[in-house]
Amino acid sequence: MEKSVINFLKEIVIEAGKIIKENFNKSNTVHYKGKIDLVTEIDIKVEEFIKKRLETIEGDFNIVAEESFDGNLPDDKVILLDPIDGTTNFVHGFPFVAISLALIDKDYECGIVYNPILDEIFTAESGKGAYLNGERIFVSKTDNLEKSLIATGFPYSSVVENIDKLLKLLSNVLKNTRGIRRAGSAALDLCYVAKGVFDGYYESNLKPWDVAAGKIVVKEAGGEVLNIEGESYTFSDKFIIATNKFITKDLLRLLNGV
Ligand code: IPD
Ligand code: CA
Ligand code: CA
Ligand code: CA
Q1: Residue 258 has what pLDDT?
Q2: Ligand 1 atom closest to Cα of 187?
Q3: Residue range 179-227, pLDDT digits in tens
Q4: Which among 34, 73, 90, 181 is least surrounded, fewest beta carbons within 10 Å?
Q5: Per-residue pLDDT band at 13 (split at 50, 70, 90)
Q6: Cβ burial, residue 76 (10 Å; 0-12/13-18/19+)
Q7: Is residue 105 part of an annotated ligand binding site?
């Protein structure tokens, strides 16, 4: 039987994960895209490895990958790749790093987020549910913001337009929830919403490859991914919010109350 698209992509990602694992906690050459915006030789190596392997995929797909992005983002027939989501974590040996790969083809989409250090692979296909290491996962059932654990992330300092606003948001969320986590990988933050570890997540200024796969995983686990207006999130939105659906109204109110 012919291999399914998702299984083909999974094999590639697992193979590429070995490159990350072998080089984790080693001193890798770091280059600077901005003052604190890092890229290592391993980001490049993983990206090149995956792109090479994708050459054999059937269909005319555009590959959009972080380290070779040319500014062109087609909205269909596209594969979005973040070779290491959590490069700062990778450089510092914090084991929250992942390869994020999503494929969007008309009515079909699938997403894979693989953390080779913790050996966790999140997968989802449209209409077929979300999985962690092959086991079905679901968002949490928490409907009370005060009992919710919320994840977030901070944009690189160069793109923080309004630090007061960012701090006000943090303070609002901190005062009204059980706590906040900033783990350093947007793709995994989304998958942990899908797994029911986090009840909600918000961040701004992300790129399509950060969130493309995680968004599919959240939706297939029963959650929702929205913009700050509460509409379905698109890659051109500045703000992304993911929830288990039950805390959406309250979290949106909190994030808009600034
Ligand atoms: C970053 C991570 C981080 C988020 C940053 C992203 P990178 O991606 O997803 O959690 O807060 O904004 O840029 O650069 O490590 O691939
Ligand atoms: Ca980066
Ligand atoms: Ca990223
Ligand atoms: Ca990256």
Answers
A1: 62
A2: 9
A3: 999 999 999 999 999 999 999 999 999 999 999 999 999 999 999 999 9
A4: 34
A5: very high
A6: exposed
A7: no
In this prediction, the answer to ipTM > 0.95 reads yes
The number of residues making up the chain comes to 258
Whole-number pLDDT of residue 1: 36
Q: Which amino acid, one-letter code, is at 92? A: H
The band of 64, judged by pLDDT with boundaries at 50, 70 and 90, is very high
Active-site residues: which are they?
66, 82, 84-85, 87, 210
Contact residues for 253 (Cβ-Cβ < 8 A; gap 6+): none
Domains of the chain (ranges; CATH) run 5-137 (3.30.540.10), 145-256 (3.40.190.80)
Q: Is 22 exposed, middle or buried (0-12, 13-18, 19+ CB in 10 A)?
A: exposed
Residue nearest to atom 5 of ligand 1 (CA): 155
Using an 8 Å Cβ cutoff, are 130 and 242 in contact?
no
Amino acid, single-letter form, for residue 15: E
pLDDT computed for residue 159 by the predictor:
62
Helix (H, G, I), strand (E, B) or coil at 105: strand
Q: How far is the CA of 71 from the centre of ligand 3 (A)?
A: 16
Sign of CA dihedral 39, 43, 44, 45: positive
